[in-house]
Each structure stands twice: as C-alpha cells, then as structure tokens.
C-alpha cells in the first residue's frame, strides 16, 4: 500500500463515486498492475478498469531561485458493481 498516497476529493471525483469510480494519487513510479494488485488485496474488491494520468509539478519560488514540486500520477479506479472501498482520508507524506 506504499504506492497509494491518498484519495482525491474534487467535484469530479465526488461525481465519479456515483459510477463506482474512485480517484487517488499514487507514486509516479508505480505501474497499473501494481496498483490494481494492491487495491484488490488490501480492500478485497474486484477492479475492472483503471485510468491514469500524470500531473506536472507546480512551480515554487524561494527568493530568486525558481524550483518545483515533484510530479505525481492520479488513478481513477472502476470497481465491479456491488463492491466499494472506504475513503482514504489520511494524507500520507
């Protein structure tokens, strides 16, 4: 479960909950099969589809030096009807 950082609660992700789709941020180096295996093993659910996209890091300025945060990956996980997972409220760093 180290690859899954935290659940995402935006207007779109809350709307997708009605379609039995859950959104969470994951480590950028994790693969789809790893995430699918972790979710099925940890929550005891059946995953039928996974969509992912990589979000760019944000720019951060520290005085005259311009830096940036790390990029990350967001997964939208679709479960079979009848399955559900509890929300991952705790944010891990």
Automatic annotation (TrEMBL):
Q: Which UniProt keywords apply?
A: Chloroplast, Plastid, Ribonucleoprotein, Ribosomal protein, RNA-binding, rRNA-binding
Keyword Chaperone assigned: no
Q: Which InterPro entries match?
A: Nucleotide-bd_a/b_plait_sf, Ribosomal_uL23-like, Ribosomal_uL23/eL15/eS24_sf, Ribosomal_uL23_CS
Q: Which Pfam families match?
A: Ribosomal_L23
UniProt keyword RNA-binding, yes or no: yes
Where does the signal peptide begin and end?
none
* GO molecular function (one): rRNA binding
Task: Report the transmembrane regions from the record.
Answer: none
| Location(s) in or outside the cell | Plastid, Chloroplast
* GO CC list: chloroplast; ribonucleoprotein complex; ribosome
| GO biological-process terms attached to the record | translation
Give a short account of what the protein does: Binds to 23S rRNA.
Similarity field? Belongs to the universal ribosomal protein uL23 family.
Q: How does it assemble?
A: Part of the 50S ribosomal subunit.
HAMAP family xref list: Ribosomal_uL23_B (MF_01369_B)
What PANTHER family does its record include? 60S RIBOSOMAL PROTEIN L23A
Q: What is this protein called?
A: 50S ribosomal protein L23, chloroplastic
Q: Which organism is it from?
A: Platanthera zijinensis
């Amino acid at each position: 479960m180290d690859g899954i950082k935290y659940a995402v609660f935006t207007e779109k992700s809350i709307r997708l909950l009605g379609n039995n789709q859950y959104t969470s941020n994951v480590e950028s180096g994790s693969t789809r099969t790893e995430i699918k295996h972790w979710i099925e093993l940890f929550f005891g659910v059946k995953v039928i589809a996974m969509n992912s996209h990589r979000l760019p890091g944000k720019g951060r300025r520290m005085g005259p030096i311009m830096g940036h945060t790390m990029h990350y990956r967001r997964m939208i996980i679709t479960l079979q009807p009848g399955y559900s997972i509890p929300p991952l409220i705790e944010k891990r760093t």
